[in-house]
Structure formats: C-alpha cells, structure tokens
Amino acid sequence: MILDTISLTDCRLNAIIGILDFEQQRRQPLDVSLDMFLPLEPAADSEDVGDTVDYAMITAQLELLVNHGRWWLLESLAKTICRTVLIPPSPAEARADVREIELRLTKPTILDGRAVPGIAMRRTTAWCRIHREELPGGGELDWLAKTRLCDVARLRLHPDDAYTLPRGAHALTLAGLEPGVHAPGSRLHAKDHAAALVVWAREPSEISGS
Predict the structure, then answer these.
(1) Domains of the chain (ranges, CATH numbers)
(2) Ordered mean pLDDT values, 10 residues apiece, the chain (210 residues)
(3) Over the range 150-187, which residues count as b (16 or more CB within 10 Å of their CB) and which as e?
C-alpha cells in the first residue's frame, strides 16, 4: 500500500506544560508539527473529504488538548496526540484512517534563546491499543490518556444517549453534536451516532503531591 502525507507545521499554541513551578502557573509557547501517513488516492478520486483527514479538525483537537489540558512532560502530551490521531474513526465520524504519525513538539522560549528543546515521536496504528469503558447511561469512553495532570478520552454516543460533562471537563464535537467546544456541565445529547474528544484537567488541589 502506498502511503501519502498530510502535514501540519508550525502550529503555535500556549500550553501549561513542564515540571518547574512557574511552568504550571503560566502558559508558554509550544510549537507542534506533525505528518500523518495514509493513502490519499481515494480522496483524489472521490473528491470527498470523508476519504481523507480534515486538517482543520486535527488542529482543533490539538487546541483542545493544549488549551484545556495540563501537562507535566512533552512526552505525555506527544503520546496523547499520537493516540488521538491514530484511533480509528467512530461510526459517527466521516474520515479516513491515519496509518502512521510523526510528531514534533518544541518549547521555543524555555531556554531564553540558548537552544530550543523538543522531542519527536513516530507511531503506527498497530501501537494504538485503546481501552473502552461502557457508560452507565449509554455510550462509551475510549481512553486515550490518564496522566497526573489530566485525562483524555473519545466519547461515543448512540442515538438518544446523553452525557453531562463533569467538573473540569471540556469536549470538542467530532461528529453528531452541536459544533464547537463544550464547557463543564454541558449536557451532550445525541440524536444520532455522535462523538466528541473530552479533556479533564485536574485542579492543583487534586494533583498528587501538590
């Protein structure tokens, strides 16, 4: 199979990320670049965005993870991004499978111009194993990350399922719900199959050792 590439480069976000006290107290610039590997010929033939990957939606997912999550290490965020991109689409989502991802994260200002530290991570779908949790009220959570500062999951809802976002949780609609980002306390009701990316950020008092 021939794999082509969709790239997102130099996405500048402002993140709560790092092991130093001041890094958990104020945001700092974070640069994200990624290459997604998948066959693009089906989309070239059909001219249907459902046969490829919407890079605007991927950017919105990056923004949700960074804007509403808290992160201790670049490594934890990188692993979460890889799993978010590689997880197979739910029945509600019209997009192609990403077969492989190569991700680069850098913190451009942390060393005051002396150097730019960063990491690179490359993963395939064979690596992306997901634990699914059935919800009592209907629907499922596909867990993408459970870290010391935040948790991330994809919410899958069936027709007439509903889910209320708990404290500290924000959700981005992936399909089948009102578009955009939903705040804690929002009730997500699915008229048809639906999916959302959910991030739970812990308050400082809830973090072990704080």
Answers:
(1) 4-206 (3.30.1130.10)
(2) 95 97 96 98 96 97 97 98 97 95 98 97 97 94 97 97 96 97 97 97 58
(3) bbbbbbbbeeebebebeebbbbbbbbbbeeebbeeebe
